[in-house]
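Appendix B, example 12.
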Amino acid sequence: MKALLRFRKSAPTAHACASRPLVPSAPLLRFNAKDALTWTDLLSGGLLVLAQPGAGKTTALLAHPLAAWLHGGGSVVFTTFKPADAEMWERFARSRSVGAVHRVSLSDAFNPFEWELTHNTNVPGQPQRLLSIAMTPLRRRQQQSTSSDGGFFEAESERYAAQILTILRLAGVPITFRTLFQALQSLPRSPAELRSAVWRSRSPTFAALMAAGQRTDLLAADRSDLEAAAHFYLEEAPNTSSRTRGSVVATICSSLFPYIHGAVGAFLNAERSTVDLGTVIDAPGVMILDLSVQHFGAAAATVQRLLITAVEQAVLTRRMEGLVPPVCICMDEGHNFIDPEADVAYASSARDRLGCLFVCSQTIGQLRTACASGSRDPHAAVDALLGMFTTKFFGSTTDVQSLEYIQRTFADTSRARVSITSGADRSGGRDGGRKAEDNSTISRDESPDVRARDVIALRRGGPAHGYQVEAFVSAGRLWNSRRPSLLVIFPQFHLSHVG
């Protein structure tokens, strides 16, 4: 621990501003008399928390900025990974939030298509957002392939989905994952089937296409999209080889299947949503996504991802009138929920809408894996994801990749080294009856501001460390000490029994 003595250590305190307009430069979480995190620090991209398991990530490094955020009048959307997470965050929020606390479970309903069509009617780019929603299960399946065939079928799946969504949207048919699945499964398999009166009478999608074609109020862009969709449905699909068409349909339908059955299917495919995102967008509040990944597997992570994307879009499009709250999306075990493309785009543009992300993970490798499975260029995705976090809390870890990243995060510091050579030692005491003069040299070198051994030695909380967690904090600027790093002590919250 001697290596840590050169850093100033202090415990953080929160500052409240719940009933006043947000002042970007106001201190939100103070570390000492001169150093504090401000609203700007957190709203400029968000917060990354990185530490090994058992090092106090959730109970200290994540809990303290969340407590300050809630105490200051902000809204929070919590993801959940373990079954006990929802209850834990609810107790935590009720003890600190100035607004209502809402818990979303599978007994509720949230149709992301219906939400988009209902709440973003005047927002440009709606067809693209509907397609992004439809393709989320496929992207989350981590089916990115390096082969040309895999890339072809994924691209064709997106094209097929876009054409079907155009028909359903312009016909005014309620869109769900189930209706999309059924429409893809019932594509005409041949020109003869398309001409069959029996098939036409049994095809809801064909009826939707005919209804959309009779509309006279379509905008020019919608009319053009409908003509392309009609050509696809009436010409391309029935004349495509059964093998190619079947492979494309199977690629997307296999990813949609888990989201049209059981409790997850009931939650996502209702025509009307019972979840109201306005409870955290328009007023201070807390929303807890009680959909444990450990209980429901990958489907729960995708459902939470769909809700996160809807919250991000709602923040970006809300009207900044009155005292709207800053909104934080908190992803504990964030590598399960990250979407590098959506989240980077959101974090880089949400500041003026008072939105940001808090992402907590164990290692850099977990985040790299999440980006690699969700992006065509994983290296660029990782760099963009990690670069968007202006504020970073680093707890104890022994992971090599994480240690390398932490050292790179903090700029090298110039240090002075003094070397003194004694004249007596150099000349044997006397030379011609006179003592030799001492010789001193001063040199400067560059060394990491935070070294790997400093990170490994950080206190990790629990009884062995007096329930104290240490972390190096970066805010993308120099602290009062003129260093890029600040060592802070975070007392642990007892989240299992928050009072």
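The chain is about 45% helix and 15% strand. Residues 1-8, 143-149 have pLDDT under 50 and may be disordered.
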